[in-house]
## 1
Amino acid sequence: MTFAVHGLPVARGIAIGRAVLVVSSRIDVAHYFIKPEEIETEIDRVRTARNAVAEELAKLQTNVAQMGPNDAPHELAALLEVHQMLLQDEALSGGVKHWISERLYNAEWALTTQLEVIARQFDEMEDEYLRERKADLEQVVERLLHRMKGTAAVLAPSPPRRKRASSDEDDDLTAGDGIDVPLVLIAHDLSPADMLQFKKSVFAGFVTDVGGRTSHTAIVARSMDVPAVVGARTASQLVRQDDWVIIDGDAGVMIIDPSPIILAEYGFKQRQGDLERGRLARLRHKPAVTLDGQRVELLANIEMPEDTVGAMKAGAVGVGLFRSEFLFMGRESSARQTRLPDEEEQYQAYKRAVEGMQGMPVTIRTIDVGADKPLDNKSANKQEHLNPALGLRAIRWSLADPAMFLTQLRAILRAAAHGEIHLLIPMLAHASEIRQTLALLALARTELDNRGAVHGQVKLGAMIEIPAAALTLRTFLKHFDFLSIGTNDLIQYTLAIDRADESVAHLYDPAHPAVLKLVADTIAECRRQGKAVAVCGEMAGDVAFTRLLLGLGLRSFSMHPSRILAVKQEVLRADTSKLETWARSVVDSDDPGAMLAG
């Protein structure tokens, strides 16, 4: 019987194939009290398992390091490093020792108990990406439990593979036997180690029960450019090994046991998608100019310097958002001492990004983390944050730690000697924050001058992601060379919607009249004052909004590299002189979504 499961679309396209199920990712553990004389034995069991998993991850890291960028995206290496850091974290090992020594829990019971304690701390974090790192912790604990049971956490054996239909059997893709039918991966969740096997196995797509748009599975899927759906809840329980499955990465739908008619329909869509990608690839070197001669900047969002390779391949004319916080993640040693990247390490990373873009501008956003997730794990970690989404994060966090902020500013200024860098400050709302930021930037320059260190000039920009900032643009434009609209947070704060809360996620609406008015007014004010403005949130890469943003006067879009060519196609087809009146009517409408859909 044909049925569908809905989730979150995170990587576009259509995948059709036989299902490969990952072995259940949850292990039942025994719960019993040990004798006092068994305490050291139980602690040693955990230690032995930890060492074995550390060795296993180290081998995977070595394998990834030996693979080319096309075989193993850098996100995979970074996520393996996160798993190593979590494995060695004193919060995990120390807590397990506590439960064994003080409560006389057996090793498995102690491990799962400490997992629950730390998982609750992750749940309270304000940042969606870091909050979803709880899944990484769960996978690390799961690997430890597997080791203590004497089994490895690996993918299930591949099912018997079927022959793809011959050319006369195109209407029945399930016909025949053989070895050429694509496989799709279905799992409760996928760890970075699983993703390495996924890459080697050349699966055509995947679906997971859990995860969000910023989960590691989504990040790796976008970098691999394969269809994927996450957050499909019970998908792994509903699919049987070797079922025929369709993954619609555009709609966020998985279809199980499709009928021949549905298979034929999606097979046609898949072929059309392949043809469309081929057509789009021909646009790579074509300038992004509208029919009426308006030149448009299509920039890339990146997380690490190595992402510049993909940006260049997609035809980006610069980096519009370098999320520098990725350089800071997973940096704590087992002794709980701060191990943040120093000035030299950051300088080298920013320099590599500048060199990777071969003379094109690179916009570096200063670190965006928050008080409920302190990178140095100090006592702030123990504070209660009743509303972490509104807490000490982004520039507020940086201003609260001037030494860290000055280190980053000096590194960016030094890298600016090697090419054009734009410095972007996140989550500003107050004039006092602007003044503090400018003062620290001036101090960073003075410190470099006093050292005789070579540094360059940067253009200074502010992110508009808080409604208060969007409503006080004139104050911002007195101090900044450009603005960048972060639509993801702007939508969340304008509509009071927590994107990570499934119960209200349906209310997260980029086409809400209030959101569009703030975006439109920001673009208009920048144009009036002759200041540059860009959009760097998900809206920039969504072709449903390209014509609207062009009609509102936007000429700079920054997005994931995989979206650049599709947006460029919309730009080439647009006539902005004919879009202006329509765009204003959309913004003024009571139901902009309906007008955009029409």
## 2
Amino acid sequence: MSFWRMRIRPLAWLRSLHAKLFVLLGLVTSVLTVAVAYNITRNSRRELESYSRKLTIEAAGTVETDIVERDPTFKDPDKLDQLLESIAGPDRSIFQIDVFKRLGKGSEVELVRSSGEEKTVEWGPEIGSYLSLPGPQAELVDLNTGTKAWKVYLPIHTHRPGQPPIGLIRAYCDLERWEVVWNNNFNKTVRTLPGVLLGEFILLWLILRVLISDPIEGLVLTMQRLEQGEVGARAPVRRSDELGLIAARFNDMAAQLEQAAKERESLLHEVRGLNTNLQGRIDAALSELQAKNDELAALVERNALLREELSAQERLAVAGQLTATFAHEVGTPLNLVTGHLQLLDAQKDLPDKTRERLAVITGQIKRVGDIVRRLLDLTRRPQLHREVQSLGELLHDLQQLWTPTLAAHGIHVVADAPSSCSLDVDRKQMEQLFLNLMNNAVDAMPEGGTVRLSARPSEDSTPGGLWWEFRFQDSGQGIPADLLSKVFRPMFTTKPEGKGTGLGLSICREIVRGHGGDIRIESTMGQGTCVVFTLPGASAA
């Protein structure tokens, strides 16, 4: 059981033994604490008064000693002024000291010096009566300022035994400063007392929790665990008092119940053993059957992938045969026409207008030949001629090729690639790859849009080989989800009739795979299409 685990149930807690003891002991400790604080505060006031009284008597004694040793006849009052100014003053606790000298042998005195204004010093014949004091006398008096002060009378005795006093000292100590000190201590005590009481309450609560509530709660929780079927539950026994004795007896009873449960369980164990053995054989047979089914499903899936790949290769082969046949059938007449055009062009008596027309015809025939050669390049798998290519230079050259087309369709290209991006690829195939992707993007955005091309190091990169991941994204119409699995098939196209051959993406996949990379398409209807592919990076020199 955790010591700090508490359940917030106020009503239940108020009815508990913990709450009753807490309230009772809390009241007792609060009264005692307040009484002690009051007594300490009252004693501190007495101590401050006693200390200020003693300080006043010591100040008067200092003046007496100085007079007796330096000027017992009061011939040099200036020295006395210096002494009084060093001890008393309006900004000090000893705010005034008056020195009187005795006149004759009677009780008549005369004011010699005062630390205050001598004109304001109150004194009369009755002061002489204090000459007969055996020692200092202090009394509390009320000042005109409304505060209290110590007034101390001290007769000035010489060192000669039996000699009458030669004068009298009267010293005043204002208790206002000490009253401020006492008030500060009192206020501090008042501010501290709630915190002390709170600390006492918390400590009392914790002590009662540890000594009473926790053991009882531990015993109750153990009973609940036994009720829930946990036969091994035992109450923690950490004490030797009455609660510890109850817990020990309870554990003995729980141990007897557990022994009875074990004997009953042993009888059932034999029956369960037979069932477990049978169930184990059944589970083993089912596991073997499931493994065979999984292996069969994997073979079926692999077979389907191989069939799809074979079908794609067959379609490419058919396309290649058709293209080769077409190129042969068209190439022969074109070569004958080209030869006759060259013979005509060699004649010197042809008009200039005719030569211009022959040049136009020759250019168009050459264009048809280039188209036939490009068709052949689409279907044959050329040898890779890898070399280090800077992506920035490649995009710069491609931009010159596709800028007129993009400008005519209102399409903007945004490229985000590190300047350090270099590829180990075939230059011509890269041009074909990016041109095919750009052509598809242009067809997907008939009303214009944005093409975003980004490149970053692929997660598949290793210390031995760097790979770059490219994302070629347009803002076009997107591809339906049911057609995404078919876009790489040869002769398959989502474009209107007459606008596509169905070979562009298929050739792009062949180019990427030929370089050891991978390619996939992500598309959402109405949000555009993103072609993601990887290409090998150039190793650092």
## 3
Amino acid sequence: MNSTVIILAAAIIYVAMYFTYGKSLQSKVVKADPNRPTPAHKLYDGVDYVPAHPVVLYGHHFASIAGAGPIVGPAVAMAWGWIPSLLWVWFGNVFIGAVHDYLALMASVRYDGKSIQWIAGKIMSKRTGIAFEVYIWFALLLVVAAFVAVTARLLVLTPQAATATLLFLIVAVILGWMMYKMNVNFYVATAIGLILLVVAVWIGFKNPLIFVPGQTDATSAAYTQAYHYWNIILMIYIIVASSLPVWVLLQPRDYLNAYILWFGLLIGGIAFIALAKPFEAPGFTMWSANVVGEQPSPFWPTVPLVIACGALSGFHSIVGSGTSSKQLDKEIHGLLVGYGGMFTEGFLSTVVITAIAVYGVKLTGLSANAVEWGTQYITKGGLGTFIGGYAQGLADMYGIDVTLGKTFATLWVSAFTLTSLDTATRLGRFAWQEVFGMVTDTSQGIWKILTNKWVASIIIAGLGTWMAWGAGYQVLWPAFAGMNQLLASIAMMTAALWAYKIQKAGTWSYAVLIPALFLWITVTAGLIWYIIVVPLKGSTLIAVKGSLLVGLVLNFLLAYDFYIAWKRPAEEYEAVPA
């Protein structure tokens, strides 16, 4: 197998399924109407409810849902080999992830931008909504912890990207001010923003931000010290960024992120197509390769604990129903934003798998022997292998300096992780405020303190950073991914109920229900396996496994509520507005 075949196959699959399966969901399940007013217009407030250009919203949505997910997960899953990793990404994308994302977004649009957990409470029971809200807060806590760990590690090990990342944030603020306050022409503002972005990358390449000499050695004390510095910086950043109006940073930064994505995918995709490099990494290693917590991990049911956003992700339903639904200009734009955004993730994951399959043997020093790769890749490969492989591909194709290529690739990842961090913190604040809204009638004083936006943001950011402080992403990532994928199954069950009972989608409802049930069974089994098998110590044990246990209890409660709601007579749903 070679890189040309895989990249072209992915492109054909995604384009074909977008215009067939995706369009069918749009017409037969969602029944999108371009003339129906969206919440962005009906409830416009200039802060959260703001209609956005479809391309801008696509960029914001993709950047928010992606983070490091479609890169880290497949990069780690390569311990099983490139064949199972690729199949899970492709099939998961088409039949679960894209369906989940699109329907969560559009169900929210029909309920005035309400969250997926609010919708679950509306069409199942009040208890469901509360339990779902609590579950989501714990899931978002693990999102913050995992992405703080990943981002801090990236910025310590690639200090050139640290400089570029900080400058990129400044560029985004400038772009937002030009677009929303100075009313600069959209295309002129875009051109200025892109020029400043290129300058930021070049300055970063020439001026690395190093806190502690020797920090790029991941086994050194200097690395740990610099990692902790970045933990603190990231915590402060997400508290502030998550509280700003969306036009100040979120929308313009994510719009620029989309260009980073498109440019990165374009030059990377062209390089791997043109180079036609043969795959040197093994196609399949073993059923139980060393993956999760460096333990022998059976591909089923643990694969969703590793490949999170690349194939499907529950976090996407929170973003889609929490922020994107409030910015959708027309219903027909939802397919590009929700369905197209997930397919873009899948293509990115395909590029990641291809880069490692081509250059992984060279970069890790491992042979293509299945046993050696399956047992040792987890300690010698991973995210850094993708960054190195991608940079090497650019060097082989275009003659780009490898260090410059690594700087760009790391900025690519860190820009998305920062977006996911402050989006998760913002959504965690919303969830916290909704949960504690229950005490508003009994204790106004406590309610005002706990639901203050700064207090709510500090709590989730502080706890997430504490979890990342003493644990590596190798431990936090599977815990986050498991809670995240379980959230996807519950959100998809909610979407199936909405499609069947409210939208009257008939047999098309089972295109949502069947994948949801398969995913629920798989991830529930995977998380139980994680709790039993993966060794953790001290406060990390309490924080991570405690969060997972809470999540599993709520998960069974939510599944029971779904079963009861599905059996409820259809007549009881007639009065519910769609």
## 4
Amino acid sequence: MSGISGLVSNSLTGLQAAQEALQVTGNNIANVNTPGYSREQAIQSAQPPTLLGGLYLGNGTQVETVTRSYSSYLQSQVWSTTATASGANTLNTQLQPIVNLLAGTGSGLSTAINQFFGSGVAQVAANPSDIPSRQNLISQAQGLAQAMQGSARQLQDAASGVNQQIGQSITTINSLTQQIAQLNIQINNLSGSGQAPNTLLDQQNQLVTQLSAQVGINVLQQGNQVNVYTGNGQVLVAGNQSYALKTAPNSYDPTQIEVAYASSGAIISSGLQGGNLGGLLQFRSQVLQPAQNALGQIADGLAQAMNSQQAQGLNLSGTFGAAMFSTGNPQVLSSSSNTGSAQISASIVNTSGLTASDYLARFDGANWTVTNLSSKQVITSGSALPLSFDGVQLTQASGTPKNGDSFLIEPTRYGALNFQSLLTAPSAIAAASPYVSSAGSVQSGGVLANSNLGNLTLSAGSFTATSGSASVNLSNTLASPPVPLQLTLTSSGVSGGTVTFQVTSGSGATSGVVGSGNLTLGTSGTTLGINYPNTPPGGQWQVTLSGSTAASGDAFTLTPSGPGNGNNAQAMAALQTAKSLNGGTTSLEGAYGQLVSQVASQGSQAQSSLSAAAAVVQQASAAQQSVSGVNLDQEATNLIQYQQAYQAAAKAIQVGNSLFQSLIQAL
């Protein structure tokens, strides 16, 4: 087309192109605050020319397509950093209440432990016969039990909350993956014309961004469709198909919720990282369960130490003390896939050997192996049970195991949750040691008379955990109440010499002899031991006879302690700092300090990780928006540019019309 008609025709294409460009610009401005919107741009090109009179004359312009400003690399960075930041935020949100619970300055459990030892036990040690002091210790023990249970219950509530939030996250994930699959279908159908449905592509990216906030993902682009996988390759969306997830009980512990495929039931929790769901799983495995185990370890250690010390001493009735506390039993959970009938139980045999780990016992048809789940190391094995490890004994109660059967052992998980105070009567506190050592013999009428001529001494006595470890082990055991004993020298001597002695029970007659031995004068002495009949405490009470000069007939008496004796209560007070945990390397006070330090460190690290992740996702979003975001200044410039183009095309049409009018008038 040439001449005036060519002028008008070309100007009309310019008018149309400018109008469409203005529409695109207006759409950009309208969506400046729309989440996920990518800036669009009208791409113009010249239409093919026409050969007329030996000349190629142009035919105007056209808008070939409307593209969106998009970088797949920058968008993938947004998805990756969003998953990291969301996971860090969830971990920090879940962790801070645990930090406040265990490491807060006003922690009820920390206060209760200090008051139990510092106020309760210490007062009884100072005033063993004082009933108000004893009643205060009973109250402090009950307060400690309530604080221990309260802390453990809050941790248990946190575990229940994690289960609930995992379910909510799965519901959100399923909704998002279903929408992404549906958009894949729509985008595929609308892309047949050769033009990209930009709005749907933006919606697709926005849904993937929301999905990355729930769980860490990898995205594979296939044309305009996306396939979405979890970080370890588990498929969530493949083309037009979404793969729904569901909650499923843990194969060992049905109270613990896992993530599984809805169709097959296959559990995929262990491979999920990042996002809200990954943060929840990380919190449970790395913070919550270790804290529950560590708190249970402290509860088990405290109960065993106090109960053992109670059993070593005498209460106001003159009998050995009963247990002060009880704790939860170790849990043994069988796998839901077990085919055998074996019933396995566990018991704590040595709290000093306990750790804050869980264990997995597996039978391979011939042998048992026990693996520490924290270190992933096999710690013991054997062809049959019982097996002992880390303060725990594993026993086969009944049934027969089959090849592949496995059992999860949680030695301390419920120690604190079921921690209880058992004593109610002030008189039941065993504040006194079993014997008081005195020089001399008991005369008729119960009067103690000391007519010793030598310089021998008999120590106040102490407990040792090993039975039969004394130089002279008496043949009888400690009765409840203890029976008075008398040690009588049967020969004389001076330093360097050896003398003999015998120990009698009751009246001191020969028929009551319960032991005899000798002493080398001037040495560290000879220990005498009398075994405790029950476990706890086990072991024996030991005294030491020493000195450099002895006379035949010299005597010493071991009499049951009275209500004014507080030696055993003093030993109870020392338990707060005695190294009784982790193989004798950590005290109760130290173990709680380690738990507080660990949780506080995790809390601080979580906050730092969140700050860093938030900064990184902000940078990634800024970089992505620098390409895809709407710049209002640029759009204002475009408005002026396209407005001028529109006006120029309209003016050209006006000129063409004027020429037509002139031509018609000339005719």
